[in-house]
Specification:
single chain; alpha+beta; two-stranded parallel sheet
């Protein structure tokens, strides 16, 4: 998913609900940023509802959703 800057903030409380964190990266071409939420909100949050997750892919090899 090289067309977005993915989030690399491992300590973010929103990470598992945010597409910037859960998107499937493009090896060798992916850019990352450490987006930081303030007061429980992040201006760069992207709801991942309806998108496949890199975590689902790794758990279900060959069964992309």
């Amino acid at each position: 998913m090289a067309d977005i800057a993915m989030c690399g903030n491992e300590s973010c409380p929103l990470k598992m609900k945010c597409y910037r964190f859960t998107a499937v990266p493009t090896p060798g071409r992916q850019s990352y940023c450490d987006y930081k939420p303030t007061d429980g909100k992040c201006d760069d949050f992207w709801d991942n509802a309806g998108y496949r997750s890199r975590f689902e892919v790794s758990e279900n090899i060959g069964q992309l959703k």
